[in-house]
Structures are given as C-alpha cells and as structure tokens.
Amino acid sequence: MTHRLLVTYGQPTDPAAFDAHYRDVHAGLASAIPGLVRFSTGHPATMDGSPCPAYLVAELDFESEEAMGAGMSSEEGRAAGADVGTFATGGATMVHFDVHEVTG
Questions:
Q1: What is Dmax (Cα atoms) for the chain?
Q2: What is the DSSP letter of 54?
Q3: pTM given for the model
Q4: pLDDT for 104
Q5: Strand ranges (DSSP E) for the chain?
Q6: Distance between CA atoms of 33 and 55, rounded to whole angstroms?
Q7: Domains of the chain (ranges plus CATH)?
Q8: What's the distance, CA 12 to chain centroid?
Q9: What is the C-alpha to C-alpha distance for residues 70 and 36, in angstroms, rounded to an integer?
Q10: Taking every annotated instance into account, which residue ranges of this chain make up the domain EthD (predicted)?
C-alpha cells in the first residue's frame, strides 16, 4: 500500500520567487527524505476557471504511514519541513492518507 503526504501551498506574494526557491532549494530537500518512493508537483486550476486558492500541490509517496513518519522525523525531513516557512508566504497545508486504487 502507498501512503501519501499531500502538501497544498496557498497563493504566494511573489510567485516567481516561490517557484525559484521551490525548484532550486526545496525540491532537493524533499527529494532527500528517506523512504520517499515518489514525488510529484503541479500547479492546480479550478474546473470552472474561477481563482484557485492553491498555487502548488505536492504529492510525496511512501510505502507506509510508518515509513512516512520515519522519513519526516529524520534530519532530512525536518530540514524540508523547516524550509517551508522560508518561502511559502501563502501558507501550506499538509495532510496524509493511505492511497486506495479505485478500479471500474
């Protein structure tokens, strides 16, 4: 089973600075978290074209909730977590859950 950490970043005060820091610093910190098996990001858009409250969504997958906990409490995980406050001027919401594949 996969356990996912979903990070939703709010609209930053300076999108270009956010993107540069995320690309040049934060993505490397997050990629170094032990136990991470998949890491993806995307800029979301609403289906109706209205303003989107989220600027960036990141998905970090681990083999289990225990693996996520160990990774996030590691030195690398703490460094990535501490970095969020240095660039996420629109805030960040982190939730985690077991991923269940739905087949038709």
A1: 43
A2: E
A3: 0.94
A4: 79
A5: 2-10, 36-42, 54-62, 92-99
A6: 23
A7: 2-98 (3.30.70.100)
A8: 15
A9: 10
A10: 11-89
